[in-house]
Amino acid sequence: MSAAPLRLGLAGLGTVGIGVVKIVQAHADLIAARAGRPVTIAAVSARDRTKNRDADLSGYAWETDPVALARRPDIDVFVEVMGGHEGAAKSATEAALAAGKHVVTANKALLAHHGQALAEQAEAANLALRFEAAVAGGIPVIKALTEGLAGNRIKRVMGVMNGSCNYILTRMQAENLPYETVFEEARQLGYLEADPNLDVGGIDAGHKLSLLASIAFGTRVAFDAVELEGIGNVSIDDIRLAQDMGYRIKLLGVAQMTGRGLEQRMTPCLVPADSPLGQLQGGTNMVVLEGDSVGQIVLRGPGAGMGPTASAVMADVIDIARGCRLPTFGIPASQLAAAQPARAATPAPYYLRMTLLDKPGALARIATCLGDAGVSIDQMRQYGHQGANAPVLIVTHKAAPDDVAHAMTRFAATGVLVGEPVAIRIEEV
Amino acid sequence: MSAAPLRLGLAGLGTVGIGVVKIVQAHADLIAARAGRPVTIAAVSARDRTKNRDADLSGYAWETDPVALARRPDIDVFVEVMGGHEGAAKSATEAALAAGKHVVTANKALLAHHGQALAEQAEAANLALRFEAAVAGGIPVIKALTEGLAGNRIKRVMGVMNGSCNYILTRMQAENLPYETVFEEARQLGYLEADPNLDVGGIDAGHKLSLLASIAFGTRVAFDAVELEGIGNVSIDDIRLAQDMGYRIKLLGVAQMTGRGLEQRMTPCLVPADSPLGQLQGGTNMVVLEGDSVGQIVLRGPGAGMGPTASAVMADVIDIARGCRLPTFGIPASQLAAAQPARAATPAPYYLRMTLLDKPGALARIATCLGDAGVSIDQMRQYGHQGANAPVLIVTHKAAPDDVAHAMTRFAATGVLVGEPVAIRIEEV
Questions:
Q1: What is the rounded CA–CA span in Å between residue A58 and residue A80?
Q2: Which residue intervals define the domain ACT in the entry (chains A, B) (predicted)?
Q3: Which of A259, A302, B28, B343 has its CA 20 to 30 A from that of B294?
Q4: Which domains does chain B have, with CATH numbers?
């Protein structure tokens, strides 16, 4: 065990960067004992040196340019917590690897877009490129999947991995408020990215899912193949009615490998209200890992914030200090297979909501469309009439998504529908 | 990355051992890709060679004596899944370390009693001694705590870690059955150890807690200092009445370090019914880790069984194959501090149940005892009289356990009590 310190170059002094500084300073002895050697910060970089950052940075060399930081001879590990998947984050990460530095990053977008090339570069140079903080914040899910479940063939990975979306959905439900109102609240509270579509459009969570899928199935990261649907169209009506049927609506990521290929979805789904996923409130994240030997493992914890994200960064740093090396995505990047996206998702029950004209035979026509498409009905509820119209809820038995879509297109021709029908997948958890 | 296979010597061919054989055989390619080298079984040992074990063992050398297996020159890792904390398991583990073999064990009892000496022996020889499978079955909790949360000062660790006890308690609740009936059911279903007191007496779970506490707080394993109380005295009345107050009763392990010292308890506790711990049903395990940076992480999964336990064993094996080495308890065994057991537990609310004679002033006398002891009342419920007696429930505000005990001893002198009062700690989760 070497006593030489592991020296960090910390690029980015926002919330996460300052969180890392605080842990390194507060727990120097604890970390040295656990890592077998001291972990120190040698140099930092950020754009604005004059900003007050509520941390003592006086002992660290300063670089304005993260690329210059990445190349400094006095650092061993480049810690990238700047964010952004092009520009400085990418060029500095590449420069760090080229200069023989290990890299620890919290940057899901960078890895979702450039993970393959970066992992190949790192592995060719026998360097670590690690990203525990990029997925589900403080939850050690990359470690659980890559190491803890390494003896399993992974069957499915699921997760609620964007706290802002889960906050919005659970608050809509708790307060019976429409999406737009809660979205605006969240924006004003600073819960959303500068481009809120990264959150509510499911992009951020989709990035995370694509990284988990790569590890789970030994495939190259395929973010472009993730079926993405944000929460902007989730209505308070559906939240309320789903609840009435014993379900909750979550922005749920699902990745699974089937005979049809790799499925990756980040879409609003119904899950049973009494399941761990259904019970998840507010900004907390949850990831569900299913392996052929272990069965189902559920991990729950804070998905963002200074402390949790910095905790995950430090886990990677300490692993590097301890000398643990493994490929970025669990097997060597050169061995990752190209993902073959599934043409159609695994069959699942669907929740259908529609409003029918209140005339004889209306419901029968809808039921006929479903039957003709091969979709059978598990439950149906017709609610009290609203004027001349009748809201109808249907829960189907397991059906192929294409069959459901086919039935939906035929609804229009019946002439009994008011407005657009809604279909939401019910994920069996 | 070396292509030389990592060769296992597998001691014990019970459920877990056969689970390991199945994984090694079924996933040879997957494991080789993940570990960077093949993982093979070179030799096995068990007492009875003739027993039918539902696995093809023909390719493995056979030793009747696990000590002989441990010393074989053709093994790199000794996998101990025999069980028992003295005798063969201990001597074979010592022999393996003495012969320069890494050890992976599922044996909580062995480590709870001899972990310090074994870890010192392993570390002096620069060998791995790992035990993921010993705590909470398939949940990668040792990894999460030792590695995933390595940047945190750990504040508290909690867990439901004996599936049989949780099965008994949740079934008592669901079916409104007394302890004795469900205990007998569980015994006949084979859910209990040959000595059932290992399960229902809390000993098995206490072993696990003592191992987690060592890692969490950097202290030597101190199983003898665990406050142990089994579930044998949990009555269906208390389960029902606790539920009525919004709580569930769990055999809950709690380890925390305070200014008073190290607290380790494995006792029946009340937890909020809507908390993750409260919602845990059946044989599933749950561990809650609380760190100063990360906040609260909850891990849930199967705590026993062939697949889950073998999955955990293989995680350790693959880490060793990957070359990851870290001390058994997270810091070098020689640096672990002697645990200073806390003289008294952290204050907590208490649930008190008693039956009072139905006479004027009875409740006032009880309330006076509590007040005199410095225990204040948060909620009180008096239930409908049963003949001349009145069942009374009290939930206190946070109180020192000694003060509660003091009040309880004074209850007797009031002359208004029928039978023995019950006090159960409410753990704030």
A1: 20
A2: 351-429
A3: B343
A4: 6-134 (3.40.50.720), 141-303+329-335 (3.30.360.10), 350-425 (3.30.70.260)
**pLDDT(A61) > 80:** yes
- Dihedral angle at the C-alpha atoms of A18, A21, A23, A25, nearest 10 degrees? -140
pLDDT category of residue A50 using cuts at 50, 70 and 90: confident
Burial class (CB in 10 A: 0-12, 13-18, 19+), B22: middle
- Which of A22, A127, A293 to mutate to probe the B interface, most B CBs <10 Å? A293
Side-chain-side CA neighbours of A169 within 13 Å: the count stands at: 34
d(CA B212, CA A262): 38
Asked if residue A215 lies in contact with residue A156, where contact means CB atoms within 8 angstroms, the answer is: no
Tell me which of B84 and A153 has the higher pLDDT.
A153
Cα distance from N-terminal residue to C-terminal residue, chain A: 44
Q: What is the pLDDT at residue A83?
A: 83
pLDDT bin (cut points 50, 70, 90) of residue A79 is very high
Catalytic residue among A208, A250, A359, A398: A208
The pLDDT tens digits of the residues spanning B358-414 come to 888 899 999 999 999 999 999 999 887 667 788 899 999 999 999 999 999 999 899
Structure confidence by residue, pLDDT tens digits, A9-24 = 999 999 999 999 999 9
Residue B322 to residue A324, Cβ atoms within 8 A? yes
Coil, helix or strand for A210? helix
The minimal CB distance from B295 to the residues A293, A299, A308 is found for A308
Minimal CA–CA distance to A403: which of A422, A379, A376?
Answer: A376
Concerning whether A208 is annotated as a catalytic residue, the answer is: yes
Which residues in chain A touch residue B33, judged by CB atoms under 8 angstroms apart?
218, 331-332, 335
Tell me whether residues B311 and A294 touch, CB distance under 8 A.
yes
In the predicted model, what is the mean pLDDT of residues B68-95? Answer: 95
User: CA-to-CA distance for A56 and A213, rounded, in angstroms?
Assistant: 39
Give the span between the Cα atoms of A140 and B127, in whole angstroms.
25
Which pLDDT score is estimated for A1?
45
Q: Is B236 exposed, middle or buried (0-12, 13-18, 19+ CB in 10 A)?
A: middle
- Please compute, for residue A108, the number of CA atoms within 13 A of its CA located in the half-sphere on the CB side: 27
A214 contacts A336 by C-beta, under 8 angstroms: yes
**Is the complex ipTM more than 0.85?**
yes
Residue tagged 């007191």 (tokens) = B197
Burial of B307 (0-12, 13-18, 19+ CB in 10 A): buried
* pLDDT tens-digit series, residues B342-361: 988 899 999 999 999 888 88
Mean pLDDT (whole number) for A84-98: 93
B contact residues 330-369, partner A, Cβ 8 Å cutoff? 330-332, 335
Instruction: Tell me if B314 sits within 8 A of B23, measured CB to CB.
Output: yes
Residues counted in chain B: 429
Q: Which helix or strand (DSSP H or E) is residue A118 part of?
A: helix A108-124
**What is the sign of the dihedral through the CA atoms of A10, A11, A14 and A16?**
negative
Q: What is the pLDDT of residues A106-143, one digit of tens each?
A: 999 999 999 999 999 999 999 999 999 999 999 999 99
Q: How far apart are CA A194 and CA A109, in angstroms?
A: 15
Percent of chain B at pLDDT exceeding 90: 90
What tens digit of pLDDT does each residue of A323-347 get?
999 999 999 999 999 999 998 889 9
The DSSP bridge pattern shows strands B350-357 and B295-302 to be: unpaired
> In a 3-state reduction of DSSP, which class is residue B139?
coil
pLDDT band at B1 (very low <50, low <70, confident <90, very high): very low
What helix, strand, coil percent values describe chain A, rounded to 5? 40, 25, 35
Please give the backbone phi and psi of residue B271, each rounded to the nearest 5 degrees, phi first. -130, 155
Name the residue type at position B334. S
